[in-house]
Amino acid sequence: MAALAYNLGKREINHYFSVRSAKVLALVAVLLLAACHLASRRYRGNDSCEYLLSSGRFLGEKVWQPHSCMMHKYKISEAKNCLVDKHIAFIGDSRIRQLFYSFVKIINPQFKEEGNKHGNIPFEDKISSVKVDFLWHPEVNGSMKQCIKVWTEDSVAKPHVIIAGAATWSIKIHNGSNEALSQYKMNITSIAPLLEKLAKTSDVYWVLQDPVYEDLLSENRKMITNEKIDAYNEAAVSILNSSTRNSKSNVKMFSVSKLIAQETITESLDGLHLPESSRETSAMILMNVYCNKILKPVDGSCCQPRPPLTLIQKLAACFFTLSIIGYLIFYIIHRNTHRKNKPCTDLESGEEKKNIINTSVSPLEILLQSFCKLGLIMAYFYMCDRANLFMKENKFYTHSTFFIPIIYILVLGVFYNENTKETKVLNREQTDEWKGWMQLVILIYHISGASTFLPVYMHIRVLVAAYLFQTGYGHFSYFWIKGDFGIHRVCQVLFRLNFLVVVLCIVMDRPYQFYYFVPLVTVWFMVIYVTLALWPQIIQKKANGNCFWHFGLLLKLAFLLLCICFLAYSQGAFEKIFSLWPLSKCFELKGNVYEWWFRWRLDRYTYSIWASSCKNKAECNELHPSVSVVQILAFILIRNIPGYARSVYSSFFAWFGKISLELFICQYHIWLAADTRGILVLIPGNPMLNIIVSTFIFVCVAHEISQITNDLAQIIIPKDNSSLLKRLACIAAFFCGLLILSSIQDKSRH
């Protein structure tokens, strides 16, 4: 009865909700979300710097999440590179001094917090010519005004960045009197035009006062209340924002520190000064505000304009636009023809006469339709990860964000099961199931940021190795059993593996090696093909007739293993081979092939280990490829125990397994964000709903791309050898043109 109810329920769901209707719903959702985000950007503004300076929240104890964008964590070398020959000045009280120390420690972590607390503190890095000064001016008064006024003179060198702020000393010295607030307003009114003048040539930030933790304040600071601080902040914002008529003030309000302090002030030692972690966050925000527009880090960080379109991207946009227009014209003509051929009524007999029409779809229509769909999908990719339309957030790992979704998909996988059509070891349904659950686990691993948790990281390495094992096993079995070494088979596999990645390299302006898994499976496919296709070609039919051929196959595999070991332990030889043009264009990332060597070497034997004993990633990665294939073989043996387990498979996992490659590639830009460094936010303020909606759209897109790839493979890679050779010549010409354009682009960038 339970099985009958399950089958009836599934049929009912499939009747009302098909894959096609799901894709239509996903398209409607994308259009609505894009319209909402576009309207929000126009209403609230499109300057992510303002969001960085004024809004955000903590994802954890130390992970600060700005509104709509991400924060880059600057390394020492990056900070020095950005600030070379720059002068930064901090002016204010002890809180500004704290911010000064945290900022300097980004450049030089060994810098000690020492010196006269109530005096000026200089810092200079002579190698990079970076100068950072703290100027002690605890009150907004004539002394601070004179310091700022000197910089406004034409003959004086001005700091490139000025960070100023003060108020608590005025509250303390004057016992929180209203007269002190009035004097503060007068003083800041006299300083405002000077700051505005400086802001025309320098970056000027006014730091609003952070709240205090009143219970911890000492007796001589009890008059510093949050009510007084709010009044001083309101005065500063009102006066500085109205210092220019009919235009927006160039002096930027650094108000985000207030939000940071609200979450962390209870950890303060004296109730006034922030804990070190909060100061570090504020200092990193300052570094992001100034340096992101200079270094342009590729990680979805704030304060960056949309990257300009490259020549290749413009040509791709023209191609897809023409494809969409061509398909629409074709569709209109076809529809009109179909209307003319509708059955007409015989006036004498009253019966319909049916015209005989050819209902088969032409290859041209399939081609135009496929590129039309692909063009719309690529537009969505670009909107998600290049156009700054949708929001992005940092990843933040907790055990619950990884393990709870794992439990959910496990329950669904067990619930949706069917009987297998065949029970041989590693049959198609079983391998699709295996690929499916592995891919879902890898997706959860990526979106949860679980790479920071070493045991999970090593388990995922096992899954990646198992995926490569399956790929290698499948290709080896095909060649071994069927003996089909024809060019058509090779081109079909290479096209299906690489089509989406090549399109993304063009549209998203990313190198081929960026999508590292596809180069891995492509290279290993070619390795297996070349090994088996070279003379003597040894296949199952030939080997069954003579055991000598088995020995010949073992010699081939032994020689292959020797070559793999040589390249794995000879980094120099490996890099020389893959640094040759045009291979370098495919396998270089950030100007070298080290990442490709690392990825290739890590899974060179396609097996993994249980590595809970290793202490860090470097140690784990070193051990990972050197241990036997025990875990993969163990899983195969357990999964194929004779009986019930071998006769059923999870249709839920198998469905995802059929589109596993598309899921792995598409996640880079339309599920994750900033090239996998963050998370795409379609629905802000509701993380659970956002994950549900973005996942739904992501899966629909991956499934559609899988169908598009299969359709195009049938047209672009024909079975007829003469036609195939002509197509290959066209493809070769296309890639030659792409390489030339890419070289021109690289030269223009440098």
From TrEMBL:
Q: Which InterPro entries does the entry mention?
A: Cas1_AcylTrans_dom (IPR012419), Cyclin-like_sf (IPR036915), NXPE4_C (IPR057106)
What keywords sit in the KW lines?
A: Acyltransferase, Glycoprotein, Golgi apparatus, Membrane, Transferase, Transmembrane, Transmembrane helix
CC per GO annotation: Golgi membrane
State the reactions this protein catalyses: CMP-N-acetyl-beta-neuraminate + acetyl-CoA = CMP-N-acetyl-7-O-acetyl-beta-neuraminate + CoA; CMP-N-acetyl-beta-neuraminate + acetyl-CoA = CMP-N-acetyl-9-O-acetyl-beta-neuraminate + CoA; a ganglioside GD3 (d18:1(4E)) + acetyl-CoA = a ganglioside Ac-O-7-GD3(d18:1(4E)) + CoA
Where does the UniProt entry say this protein principally localizes? Golgi
Q: Which domain of life is it from?
A: Eukaryota
A single GO BP term for this record reads:
carbohydrate metabolic process
> Where would I find the NXPE C-terminal domain in this sequence?
64-125
Q: Which parts pass through the membrane?
A: 311-333, 396-416, 436-457, 487-507, 514-536, 548-569, 652-673, 679-703, 724-744
Give the top-level enzyme category.
transferase
Q: Which family does it belong to?
A: Belongs to the PC-esterase family. CASD1 subfamily.
Protein known as: N-acetylneuraminate (7)9-O-acetyltransferase
* Organism the protein comes from: Panthera pardus (Leopard)
